[in-house]
Amino acid sequence: MKLLLILALFTSSVFAAKLDLTAYSESLDYAQVTKVLATQNADGTWCFGTSVLHNDQGWDHYADAWEVTDLDGHKLGYRQLHHPHDHEQPFTRSQCNIDVPSDISQVVVRAKCNKHGYGGKAMLVKLKRK
């Protein structure tokens, strides 16, 4: 089972592949997306405020990024997290000016850590366009 999970995580991060939102680890060793607020700007781009829960343990093991993808796994946006949040859990960080094609009504937001990569709970987000 672990080999299949590792293989699935590797292939989904290297190649665009339809994401399976039902297969994830609940362990806090993996970064878990707990909440997402998506708002559309006047210019049509999007801001995503994403809350992440992870067992940050200093620089050796911490949630280091989250990304927005379409349902096929194509990356639309990315937010680098520049330091551990050992004493701030869950924490929320935003990324704006993300272009989402007008024919896309749902996106996936998933987080990763610097030790285990992706594999925690992702979130399907329905976009409310202006």
Essential attributes:
130 residues, mainly beta, 4-stranded antiparallel beta sheet, 3-stranded antiparallel beta sheet, 10% helix, globular
Describe this protein's structure:
10% of the residues lie in helices and 38% in strands. With 130 residues, it is mainly beta. It has a single domain, classed as Immunoglobulin-like (Sandwich), CATH 2.60.40.730. It has one helix and seven strands, in the order H-E-E-E-E-E-E-E. Strands 4-3-6-7 form a four-stranded antiparallel β-sheet, with no helix packed on it. A three-stranded antiparallel β-sheet has the order 1-2-5, with no helix packed on it. The N and C termini lie far apart (43 Å). It is globular.
Dominant shape: globular
User: Which superfamily, in CATH terms, is the homologous superfamily?
Assistant: SOR catalytic domain
Helix count, DSSP H or I runs of 4 or more residues: 1
CATH topology: Immunoglobulin-like
SSE sequence, one letter per element: HEEEEEEE
Number of domains: 1
Q: Which class in CATH terms?
A: Mainly Beta
Averaged pLDDT: 86
**Are there runs of 5+ residues with pLDDT below 50, and where?**
1-14
Physical arrangement of strands within the biggest beta sheet: 4-3-6-7
Summarize the structure.
With 130 residues, the chain is mainly beta. Helix content is 10%, strand content 38%.
Topology:
Blueprint: H1 2-14, E1 32-40, E2 46-53, E3 63-69, E4 75-80, E5 91-98, E6 106-113, E7 123-126
Antiparallel strand pairs: 1-2, 2-5, 3-4, 3-6, 6-7
